[in-house]
Write the structure tokens for this entry.
Amino acid sequence: MSRVAGSSEELRSMISAALSAGGKGVEIKDEKLLREKVIDDLIYTAVFSESETVREEAKVIIRDVANQTGAVPASIHELYIAMGRGETRNFTTPAINIRGLTYDTARRIFRVAMENNVGAFIFEIAKSEIGYTYQRPSEYASAVLAAAIKEGYQGPVFIQGDHFQFSASSYKSDPDAELKKIQDLTKEAIEAGFYNIDIDPSTLVDYSRDALIDQQRENYINTAKMTEFIRGLEPEGITVSIGAEIGHIGGKNSTPEEAEAFMEGYRKTLSDMGKGDLTGISKISVQTGTAHGGVPLPDGSIAEVKLDFNVLDSIGKLVKEKYGLSGTVQHGASTLPDELFDKFPENNCSEIHLATGFQNIMYDLAPEDLREKIYSFIKDNFSSEWKEGQTEQQFLYKTRKKGIGPFKQEWWNLESDVKAKILDALEEKFRFLFSKLNVFNTREYAERFITLVKVPYKAAGASPAQEDVRNLKLEEGAD
């Protein structure tokens, strides 16, 4: 069982055999001991210490050690622009949302990447997931970097803010306040080492308007405003990768004409703002027929999805050739049939977002007593979300993601044999997906196009108040 420091003195004592911390930062004294034990204690302290000060101190140490050992938070922007220029072979970057068991799951991802020479893979967390999994950006980044240290990974670590999404209702009542909420979250994320941000004002697209340019107006205007904001926050030497979205996931399928209307409006808006020389987005998310998390049937199984690869291909070809982007992005994909995944690299899809399928593995292999404890909690606290006509299986499938945050410590402290069974299944799935998405042996592209810039983590003050899961109203979120 990993130790959790409750004070600064206890933290210093806990790491003293492997690390020394002084005015010039952290010095590694015993790398073997660091990887065998101390990094476990550090990440458990960063996540579970009751002291905000100690949690922040642990995060600072983890980032410093990660920079020293060569696991460096990075932007995938330049690699994506190279994809747009046709300087890479076809592959689709997996962007993995880790909702629970973050440290242990990230370790298995790094393990698969290192065994197969993978350079293009992303760790991400959505705005909604930050709430219900109880993982602020600095905690999530620390867990990923601690995993890299543990596994001995060296190279760029791509950490992404997924679906930093505008609430249509909040925007309608106060546009400036809603924009500021997204800006505040983005600033927090970038300061934590998220150098890849997916902006999502697609919820503001107005299909009641006749002209495509008018339908996309609030979407491209706010994407332009967020582009300016992000470029003003970047650490020196880093160009944050920015993603845009034209089709609200779960809505109507996107078209090349919509993509072109968005891009023309976006570029004109930047020009009108006097920011036409700013580096713009590197990818664009589209709707192809999927829904986040899949659509559960009455027995709890997932309905078959009719995914239109022509949407990915035609829009991807357009944005590559006309605007120099990497291609399209597919959301809501982790519950798709296995036989579809090798089709994404063939259809100008540069990135694919994967989440719920991994959560399903966690729940399927969890101890029955923990699963039933969580399900009882869900039924006690979220019965208002049980829609008329839903079976219990459908309700629990759609809602059980909200049982991850409140039971985070129970998930992290599972018995070793139970945890190993879950992680082995996850690792097998990661290996399968990485193979199908053609990212084996993409390390050369990361080394060729990505420049590592080592930025220290600056300890924050008190983190934003954690939302009470009982009162959390989810917006459209991750897969």
